[in-house]
Amino acid sequence: MPPPNTPPELPDEALRYLEHVRVEKRLAARTLALYTQDLLRLHQYAQAVGLPLLLLTSGHLRRFVAQMHGGGRSARGIVLILSGWRGFYRWAARQGLTAHNPAQGLRAPKAPKPLPKALAVDDAVRLADFAQPGDDPWVEARDAAMVELLYGCGLRVGELVGLDVAASPAAHQQGRGWIDLDAAEAHVFGKGSKRRSLPVGRAALAALRAWLALREQPFGARLADGALFVGRRGARLSAASVWARLRQRGQQAGLSTPVHPHMLRHSFASHLLQSSGDLRAVQELLGHASITTTQAYTRLDFQHLARVYDQAHPRAKKKPSPL
């Protein structure tokens, strides 16, 4: 008996497979409906090329995938379709209905990498300048310094929490970074333990000095660790804590977008590229091994330019005059 709501035009082997996954695998109704739809689509393609479903080859399926992709189906959607087809042909091989699985080894087209999410310049500045009225001065000074370093230097959150107040043999040995206030530099160890030095801007230096003036007050001599950013108990701040503090600060500052540390790194790169156009310099500052990784920000920069054009150019959105 075919599963309920199964199209009658499906061949017998497809109906048997759908019954198998319904009864023995107990697939959810929604999943079963998707399997049915995908098999019906494949059966219609097989009819178009004049072959039974079980005689389709990898070449046929590859061409069909290309047609779907060209027609606008997403790479993720094709991944799911291929998964269903592989299951069908695997079952058919176990039943002795076919000698091969034409869907085995087929890959969906690569999905385009999503653009990094960056704040608008005004929002980034608002986040950095924000101060919650009545907040603990110690917490406020620490959080302000973290935001200034994340946005002003483009640090990864792991690089931020790995910073020490000053250079030391232990920091070198354990791969931790440090701040050199006199030289206005941050020295960090990024991916692959690659060390890089970054300029620290005037606003970040001021925020760091304000934080360092308060950092030891609650602990005194008990604060033995050289960690630059610590929690209320004196331990080095964790990456999860930085995420939580940034999200809260963004909400309090009235930003519509949830803020996280990597968003400030993206904002640093995007805003720097918009102003300078120097892709190589941005690559060095971010610590990217390949320029290809940094080139994602050129797409962000183009989006910014397109918005400026749409808003400012007299011919961008000029409505046609009525006849």
From TrEMBL:
Listed InterPro entries: CB, DNA_brk_join_enz, Integrase-like_cat_sf, Integrase_catalytic, Integrase_recombinase_N, Integrase_SAM-like_N, Tyrosine_recombinase_XerC/XerD, Tyrosine_recombinase_XerCD
Subcellular localization, as worded in the UniProt entry: Cytoplasm
PROSITE patterns: CB, TYR_RECOMBINASE
Main subcellular location of this protein, as a coarse class: cytoplasm
Keyword Coiled coil appears in the UniProt entry: no
Catalytic residue list: 156, 191, 262, 265, 288, 297 (o-(3'-phospho-dna)-tyrosine intermediate)
Keywords carried by this UniProt record: Cell cycle, Cell division, Chromosome partition, Cytoplasm, DNA integration, DNA recombination, DNA-binding
Entry keyword annotation includes Secreted: no
Function: Site-specific tyrosine recombinase, which acts by catalyzing the cutting and rejoining of the recombining DNA molecules. The XerC-XerD complex is essential to convert dimers of the bacterial chromosome into monomers to permit their segregation at cell division. It also contributes to the segregational stability of plasmids.
Protein name: Tyrosine recombinase XerC
